[in-house]
# Entry
Amino acid sequence: MFFEDTIAAISTPLGIGAVSMVRISGKNSVEIADKIFSGRVKPSVAESHSILFGFLIDPKNSEEIDSVLLSVMRSPRSYTGFDSIEITCHGGVVNTKRVLDLVLSQGARLAEPGEFTKLAYLNGKIDLSQVEAIADIIHAKTEGARKASMSQFIGSLRNEVLNLRNQLIQLCSLLEIDLDFAEENLLIIDTTKINDQLSAVEKQIKKLLSTYNTGHIIREGARVSILGKPNVGKSSLMNALLQKNRAIVSHLPGTTRDYIEETIDVSGIPFTFVDTAGIRDTKDDIEIHGIHFSKENILSSDLIIVMFDISSPYDADDRRVKAVIDDAMLQNKTVKTIYVGNKTDLGEFDRFKFASHIGSDFIRVSAKSQSGIDELKTKIGVLFNSDVSFNSPMISRLRHKIALEKSLSSLEIAKRSLADNLSYEFVALDIHNAIHALAEIVGEVSSDDVLNNIFSSFCIGK
Amino acid sequence: MYDVVIVGGGHAGYEAAFASSRMGCKTLLVSMEVSKIGTLSCNPAIGGTAKGHLVKEIDALGGEMGFITDRVGIQFRILNRSRGPAVWSPRAQVDRAGYPSTTQMLLKKEKNLELLNANIIDLKIDHNKIHAIVTSDGRVISCKSAILTCGTFLNGIIHIGLKNQNAGRYGEAPAKGITEALVSLGFESGRLKTGTPPRVHKDTINFSACEAQYGDATPEPFSCRTERITNKQIPCHLTYTNETTHDLLKSGFDQSPMFTGRIKGIGPRYCPSIEDKINRFSDKDRHQIFLEPEGYDSVEYYVNGFSTSLPNEIQEAAIRTIPGLENVKMLRPGYAVEYDFFPPYQVNLNMESKFVDGLFFAGQINGTSGYEEAAAQGLMAGINAALKVQNKEPFILRRNEAYIGVLIDDLVNKSTLEPYRIFTSLAEYRLLLRYDNADLRLSDFGRNLGLLRDEQYDKYMHKKQAIKNVGDWIQTTNVHPASINPILEVINSSPITEPVSILQILKRPEVSLSEFVKNGDIIPQEILESLNYRDTMREIDTSIKYDGYLKRQNEQIEKFTRMEMKRIPKSFDYSTISSLSNEAKEKLNKVRPDNLGQASRISGITPADVSLLMVYIEKGYRGHSKEFSDTTNII
# Structure
């Protein structure tokens, strides 16, 4: 039986390490532990949340497998809500697998990816937004992403969404009283007030929606394109930022024809830097292709670092670069830009003239001598961190965004109905739709598709 | 041996009797006083917000409440006219004496139906199946199925001040024995309370101090069988309580059976007694009082809004502080009545009890209040008892099909602890459940059940055809600027420059079909006839005007239906799902929902519980787990 099963999996990454952990959950967990564990105290008589030291013995041939620490967590006070056992054994692929095999041989079934979390969800220990948060905590690439996911796990998003939903339910009940008790003249509804309250909820939803870019960036990371004319030092800058020689650097213009990407952590956000082909007038097919890629890359970027060679005059290629940027800014309105003047080590041509040409201040660096790189990193961090508070509710998933947008558009219709002086049952219809959409975020309404989608993003063992 | 016996002759009882006898079952209706069958225990009115919808639905299914009301109505009004069409509701004041006499006259015409004066004190149940009912004089009446519609009579106690007496209605004895018989079988019973206001003498009311409220100029009948209402219409009157009234009433609170704890039953929150209103809404300095005439020849007036169980003297003194009632003569005091009910999780959606085969419950015994709620359940219980006797599938209406469906689904799943009343807000899909389309929604069901007479069915078919005719015409006919612009000009709608379909014109919020009718020359004669057939025009106008809303409502229904389609096997054992909380297991085992949608509506069942069930059941269906399909009978 599905929920009668006791499941087990290795919960630490496979590889060489001092210790590994095998987790067992389900109603037979303790029984299985009893069969394979030999120590001063039997797991079945141990108190919940205690740790036992002992040996794992294969009951078939009494072979001693490993010396381990075994934690007992009894239902319902465990992650899944079922009795759970965690065995901390010595690390290494062979040993850990041996321990898992032993557990499986005693009646546990290998867990499916995300199954522990699925059980926790189905046992009502956590809601959907928290399930996603756990996936994000596991997959967090940076401290910022971890903090944001943790905040979601603790329930900040859930609370915010429930709060919005409650406001709408309150509003709806006012309308319902008016409809059902119209003859009794119980209260007079002020349409302006209803409209204002709808607007207030809309505003809060929009605020939450606005965290998507940041939330998304914290979760997925930001894409940074480095752009400039050939041989301006884009690859050198990338290497300087990454602190390693990732890109091939040469003094020949057009060395980078394809693009190269690499991720680093800047102030808690994973930045993926993309080194692109330099933009210039060229007849080389491969290079033209590369330039085309550069332009496309800009459109999918969150940040563009625009480079100029400050040691030589502003030329036609620079103008071409500037035009590409201006065009990109028009098409991708959320993209941010930082201008960088490179090659300060070769002397500066005319700082003020440059600033007036590009219409912006810029950071002076020398990719070669590494000067100005820290200042650039700080600037990048500030650009993305200014509107980040890891503790306030934030949405990071497309699913949340779509649900919020759905509820927003329902509220817009509701307001229109109100403005058109339609009777309240029409207004209520769309408010109900908005409430429904919000409920989808925390899983109050869910279909199996949504569930399966979410749980499939887990690796085995959680 | 009767096919169906019905115990109780209230609104649930007579609708059940009409339905089962017309479906060909040999039916017996037992009442403690046959001459009281169809009595209006409380106010002399039928219908009202959402209740009017129920009456129209009963009519569309072939029931009688609407038809009787049309015969004895003394004032007809569509409530909520200032709101949208979905929440309009018909209501009628009726002649208190005429209603039961008309009901009894109609009952006596039914061929398969017998009426019996008797007091039922016991039920013969064997192997969880009903076999007979037992009268107080020892007669055992065998039956294949029985419907209990006992209203407020089960161990009824009437309270006036600190005095009380055993009674089901003022001056009528309560029913004893049935509760005890059922409880001994393992049924759970509870106690509810309801109340009624004093009646006053018409000639002692100063109407000039009150505000008259008249019925509609063109009264709209409830029943499709009624062509038009010809009864003379008489007005109701509005007046208000004041601070002096409230002070006087408060002086009697120490003698209130409510506040002194003598009444244990739970009363309805939405229809509170006047003392409750003063207590709970202390910031309101006045409450509305609605004076309802009891009939053409009656000298009684019903003081709606003044339900009370305070002592006689207090009632009388307080009522005389109300403008228009200064010199009023009280003919009968208000009172509170306590009675037994059976929390309705104990019945299935077909109104049959879960524990006893062939035993049905309908009306106040299920914890509802109101004539209309009772009649709707009575009709459904009568239909399903007959279907059961005939070995046919039960007839269940879904929440998206009828208010009746909402009512019964709520009863079974929510099992509220206070008397249940229907509201439009309880119907999630109310935009589609209008009172005027009840015939379109339900006539086919009524016909298939054998309840709808030819005359009524023909009218429905005619209306359907008329709607189709007009619909086709609107979509396929173009109008030219020259013919339509003068009409548009009159109603300040912008003129057209090229020919467009009539549908396009009608989509404008300011244009309705009546504008076309006023200028009949652009409408062909046969279309005009269709348009004028019953409420065809309203149906078309509504469906065009609110098209977007109706579409969104239909989308909601699609989602709803998906969950309703996920059936839970009848024999499903919730206790095997160890991860369900004990509370959830207990509730699910009590209600035994038919599908996941219903499970999600059971109060106390959380979304996580539903997800759990969903995964569990899906797994079973897909046969992922061998053990599962071995141990349960899922196909």
Observations:
- Residues 565-631 of chain B form a domain with the DNA polymerase; domain 1 fold (CATH 1.10.150.570).
